[in-house]
Amino acid sequence: MNQTAQDYYIKGIDRCKNDNFAEAIEWFSQALAVDSKHHEARYNRAKSFFKLQRFSEALDDFNILIELQPDNAFYYSERAVALHLSGDNGLSLQDLNKAVELEPHKPFRYSSRAFIKERMGDLKGAIADYEKTIALDPEDAIAFNNKGLIEEKLGYIEQSNKSFERADRLDPKYDPEKTKKAPASDLPKIELHKKKEQKLQREEKLTMKGYLRLVKSLLTTRSERKAFKEFLKGFLKRKS
């Protein structure tokens, strides 16, 4: 019996669950040989390449995903991370600009771009993006903390102290158990890969929100704030 692209894809996912990314890539590649437009297989192959630090190959897959879905902000954001780790912050910033353009209502688009702007030396631009993040999500303690670090670097001591104080006061209020879910009857009938892509975008937001749970315990001293900044850099690299 001939196996379908979905059969190969499922085998690849099983390998990913065991962190066997090299074998996962082989199964995802077989899925794509059967169906070159199997978005889930291509995305997960890109992430597997990413886990193995094979960034150029990950970029090849992200390029194709963006060709197939040029209005998918999530793919631009993921490619931006791969570009950053490949040493191309200029192109990374272009992708993050596109992600902001496509989803200007999502605060984490601005905070991601702020990170790259800071790395490129555009400190005032980074502050502006953190301020936009805060305007959209006034309880984002991470944004307040990172904004304070940059203000401190620029010598804006009064502003940085206010940012740190606000970060210290904030308590995360996000509770995934209380997330309102739409009734099943309200959900549109869409193809499997579309559902999975929407799930990936939700997970991206949940991951960003989840780190707020660590803020109060980590940001108790100035030295811990600086250590936390390094931790956030690791988060942006999507290292789990």
TrEMBL record:
The keyword Cell membrane does not apply. TPR repeats lie at residues 5-38, 39-72, 107-140, 141-174. PROSITE patterns: TPR. It comes from the Bacteria. The keyword Repeat applies. Keywords: Repeat, TPR repeat. This is TPR repeat protein. It comes from Fulvivirga imtechensis AK7.
